[in-house]
UniProtKB/TrEMBL annotation:
GO cellular component, one term: plasma membrane
Major facilitator superfamily (MFS) profile domain: residues covered: 16-391
Tagged with keyword Metal-binding: no
Record key words, sorted: Cell membrane, Membrane, Transmembrane, Transmembrane helix
Membrane topology of the entry: Multi-pass membrane protein
Main localization (coarse): membrane
Protein name: Putative permease of the major facilitator superfamily MFS1
TM annotation in the entry: 18-42, 54-75, 82-101, 107-133, 140-158, 170-190, 214-240, 252-271, 278-298, 304-321, 342-363, 369-390
UniProt subcellular location: Cell membrane
């Protein structure tokens, strides 16, 4: 990776990192806010909430398709121009979502909105790391991801307020504006180059697809974290229709959950460096217990407040999964990172879809808790299989993921 820490003085890492984080904020807002806007979106499109959840799945599938394809095909493109192009596509797709006249076109535009998601984070992380000294690259990437975390604290509740007051379409329009500003800032302040270069060989990146440890780790996250999304997708509906909260209180619950997720991310990062595998199983177990408690707590305002805080704190599995991928991906780090976002959004598609089947059959929104627990248990089982498979591999890297 080209080190730009000693680059000319006109390069301003702080502003560039802010621009990259703003892109993360825009992406996080549209991804998570779509779930909190589900009751209003369904009403506006004249469909049921279970059917409306497929809009969220369409976005997730866009990420699944777009992340690895762009990571491989654009490996040798200049990062600055590629990031601007990705934000341009993201801006247009979200703007079209705001004007979607019907359910079918909304599905299409949400799919297109998801296409740049994973590639943006992968390439932005490389740029953020290249702006600082090697021993500060972790912090630089963390600043980028801070935009995604803050989106759960500010962007999601703000979008929910917009959905209640002036209409859900304005939330997507706001995301389009944020994407446009991000693109302008990157174009103005980000340095030209480098291209992918020799270190970004598409064929070498594709080796990740033949790495069984990478694929099993991704599968564990796609199934296990699907449990989280099975509940998060219908959280606003549960709070309104089962807990019977006022609409103006729901954004406060979402913000509290976002704060919990912020601390949960920090805790997961600390735990990953100390006891990775133990932390994975502990987090799975905590989530299963919480999800099974949802039907009993759904009708209690204070109970649901404690529930959303706990779910936020226990939502750090993506950090643990990413850490393990770094240990087992070998030389295919870029594609593995992109595939991690794909797996994360397979979870985003799988969880709401499975939960919608039970909700549509009359089991009620709290049944998402049982669906979430089952998916999380599935992820834990796959992760156990992954570790057993690893122990059977004759030649292991010195950087052992068995922690």
């Amino acid at each position: 990776m080209t080190d730009l820490a000693t680059a000319p003085a006109h390069i301003r890492p702080g502003i560039i990192q802010f621009a990259l984080a703003m892109g993360g904020f825009a992406i996080g807002t549209t991804e998570f806010a779509s779930m909190s806007l589900l009751p209003y979106l369904a009403r506006g499109l004249g469909i049921g909430e279970a059917e409306a959840s497929h809009v969220i799945s369409a976005y997730a599938l866009g990420v699944v398709v777009g992340a690895p394809v762009i990571a491989v095909l654009a490996a040798r493109f200049e990062r600055r121009r590629l990031l601007v192009a990705l934000m341009g596509l993201f801006c247009v797709a979200n703007l079209m979502s705001a004007f979607a006249p019907d359910y079918g076109t909304m599905l299409l535009f949400r799919f297109l909105s998801g296409v740049p998601h994973g590639a943006y984070f992968g390439i932005a992380a490389l740029m953020a790391a290249s702006l600082v000294a090697p021993n500060q690259r972790g912090k630089a990437v963390a600043r980028l991801m801070l935009g995604l975390t803050i989106a759960t604290v500010l962007g999601v509740p703000m979008s929910n307020v917009l959905g209640q007051s002036v209409g859900w379409r304005w939330a997507f329009a706001l995301v389009a504006v944020l994407a446009a500003v991000t693109g302008v800032l990157i174009l103005t302040y980000a340095p030209r180059g480098p291209k992918g270069g020799a270190s970004s060989d598409p064929l070498r990146e594709l080796s990740a697809l033949g790495n069984r440890q990478v694929l099993l780790t991704l599968l564990s996250g796609a199934v296990g974290f699907g449990g989280f999304f099975a509940i998060y997708t219908y959280l606003a509906s549960i709070l309104l229709e089962v807990t019977h909260l006022r609409e103006d209180v729901v954004p406060l619950y979402l913000a509290v959950m976002g704060i919990g997720m912020t601390f949960g991310t920090l805790i997961a990062g600390w735990a990953a460096d100390r006891a990775l595998n133990l932390s994975v199983f502990l987090l799975f177990a905590i989530n299963i217990g919480l999800m099974l408690s949802l039907p009993a707590l759904a009708g209690q305002a204070w109970g649901m407040l404690g529930f959303v805080v706990a779910m936020g704190l226990a939502g750090g599995f993506p950090i643990l999964g990413q850490t393990r991928l770094m240990l087992v991906a070998g030389e295919a780090q870029s594609l593995a990172a992109s595939l991690h976002h794909s797996a994360f959004n397979v979870a985003n598609a799988l969880g709401p879809f499975v939960a919608s089947l039970f909700i549509a059959r009359g089991y009620g929104f709290p049944s998402a808790g049982y669906v979430g627990a089952a998916l999380t248990l599935g992820g834990a089982i796959i992760y156990a299989i992954t570790l057993m498979d690893y122990r059977r591999i004759p030649a292991r890297s010195a950087r052992r993921p068995e922690r």
